[in-house]
Amino acid sequence: MKPNFWIKICSKCFLCKYVRTSKDKTKLKYKVFNKIKLFCPICRAANYSLKKIETTHKIDFEQRYKIEIIKKTDINVVQNIKETNKKILQLLHKNHNRPSTISYYEEILTSSLRLDELKETKRNGKKIIGTFCIFVPEELIYACGAIPVRLCAGSYDTISYAEEVLPRDICPLIKSSFGFKILGLSYFELCDLVIIPTTCDGKKKLAEILNDMMPVWILELPNRKNLTKAKTFWLEEIRTLKEKLEKFTKIKITKENLKQAIKLLHQRQMIFRKLYQLKKTYPLLLNERDTLLIIQASFYDDIKRWIEKTNQLYNEVYSLTLDSKHLNSKFSTQNITTQPIKLLLTGAPIIWPNYKILNIIETTQATIVADELCSGVRSLYDTTEVDDWSTEGCLRALAYKYLLPSTCPCFTESNDRIDKLLQSIKDFSVDAVIYHSLRLCQLYDIEFYKIKTVLKNYGIPILKLHTDYSPEDTEQLKTRIEAFIEMLKNKNQLK
User: Fold this and answer.
1) If residue 449 lies in a helix (H) or strand (E), which one and from where to where?
2) Where in the chain is the domain with CATH 3.40.50.11900?
3) Residue 346 in contact with residue 450, Cβ under 8 Å?
4) Coil, strand, or helix at residue 324?
5) Which of 87, 175, 316, 409 is the residue whose CA sits 20 to 30 A from 221?
């Protein structure tokens, strides 16, 4: 019999109904009925069934109506992706003053180097765990001997295959990512498991559909992060994730393993912070496209090698700041006779190779000096601050690190995000804001009006770019961006 059978029978029992609905639990009648329930075989079967269902949902979906999603094969898609990567790289290489170390991050994102390494790692018995968004604690994954890879995709070429299963009118990031799974491409095929936080309705339903093709876990997010009960709920989610990872990998997450993992990721965050602070002082030495290349290479790369290469990049960029001739040539090669327009980029994630708006902006007399993207600075900037190095203390620190600093619009209130934008505008001496909005991403779309109004009160111009992964609107975007930059230049000249 199905587990639900005993639960239904039990729910109709007058004795059980009285115990469930009784408001006064001090009455003798309640105490007697509650004792009788302990010996009732139907109640015991129902309780066992309920626990079984709850356990099933903790580990996986119930899958009562599993469907078969047919995978596709198309060598043209692979070739198209390679051609797109090549075109984007050609645009990036037009900047002859780029640090030489940047070529390493290009290799991670465009070649099979890391894929081949992970295949070998998988053959040696290591688990590879895919993630979406930036709420999954990578420290826990490393602490149980597994390797995390982020599966958010930015390719237009895989979308049409995803639309055979998913509706056309949903987020392009979700469709692009799912298209890679249908086509059996990229890191999806190496993953033993995927963890998806409930950051939007699209991700929730993607999890259900993906679960018919591979193991998927849901990481439930609270709607309001600053409430005490929300913090308690999230901490319990992190504890549960730890237990599930231990069972899945058959490796105990010890206090020492967790401490090492936290310190390893802390190294990654600190070297990135150093590089980002350097960019604040010398924005022309590292443009936004290269900054995103560096960050997004970390989604897949061996973490220790990424730290080593980024430290090498920092030393290279820092040495350029000491070379006044190089700094002067940097200005002259872009025909800039005055300081460039400084922009802050915020809004929906921009994922390689969908650098469409970046390619337009950075060929004008403007530069993006800062971003507030979950695919950008937000994914590497915040550190885990541990006061108590016990296992429970580490879990609490991780829970707070992944929840409290987040400015994701999935939360009910946007005050923290506005605070962060205003602080970045001040820190980086920003002239204007570019607001990137992906079509059918309601969360970022809804927040735009409030942010626009607040920035207007502070005298900060803002341009909203509503787009998707298609290249068709490139010329239209170019016209709007160039007009916006021209308006800012004229405004600056009048000061």
Assistant:
1) helix 442-457
2) 328-494
3) no
4) helix
5) 175
Instruction: Give the up-direction half-sphere exposure of residue 439: CA atoms within 13 A in the CB hemisphere.
Output: 10
CA–CA separation, 246 and 260 (whole Å): 16
Q: Give the pair of three-digit tokens for residue 357.
A: 């708006």
Q: What pTM does this model have?
A: 0.86
Q: Does the structure show a pLDDT above 70 at 335? A: no
> At 30, is the pLDDT very low, low, confident or very high (cuts 50, 70, 90)?
low
Asked if the model's pLDDT at residue 433 lies above 60, the reply is yes
Of 177, 78, 209, nearest to 438 (Cα)?
177
Give the tokens for residue 33.
């009925």
Run of H or E including 360: helix 356-361
Q: Token pair of 345, please?
A: 């980029």
Segment 235-239 mean pLDDT: 96
Tell whether omega for the bond before 353 is within 30 degrees of 0, i.e. cis: yes
Residue 1, pLDDT score: 42
**pLDDT tens column, 34-93:** 677 666 776 767 666 555 544 444 456 777 788 888 888 888 999 999 999 999 999 999
More confident residue, 10 or 340: 340
Pairwise CA distance, residues 302 & 440, whole Å: 34
Pairwise CA distance, residues 309 & 306, whole Å: 5
Q: How many CA atoms lie within 13 A of 374 on its CB side?
A: 22
CA 214/CA 161 separation, integer angstroms: 18
∠ CA(386), CA(373), CA(152), 5° rounding? 90
Identify which has the larger pLDDT, 28 or 126: 126
Structure token digits, residue 222: 């609270």
CA 493, 287, 199, 140 torsion: positive or negative? negative
For 439-449, what is the mean pLDDT?
95
CATH architecture of the domain 328-494 equals: 3-Layer(aba) Sandwich (3.40)
Tokens representing residue 299 in the block: 């989604």
CA distances from 107 to 94, 362, 378 (A): 17, 22, 23
- Residue intervals of the chain classified under CATH 3.40.50.11890 are 75-260
Under CATH, what is the fold of the domain 75-260?
Rossmann fold (3.40.50)
Q: What is the pLDDT of residue 181?
A: 95
In the block, residue with structure tokens 């392009």: 172
Specify the pLDDT at position 337.
42
Confidence of residue 284 (pLDDT cuts 50, 70, 90): confident
Phi/psi zone of residue 252: left (φ > 0), alpha (ψ -120 to 50 degrees), beta? beta
Question: Within a 13 Å sphere around the CA of 247, how many CA atoms are in the beta-carbon half?
Answer: 10
- Quick one: tokens of 133? 């968004």
Question: Residue 243 contacts by C-beta under 8 Å, 6 or more apart in sequence?
Answer: none
Task: Give the least confident one: 182-196, 280-294, 311-325.
Answer: 311-325
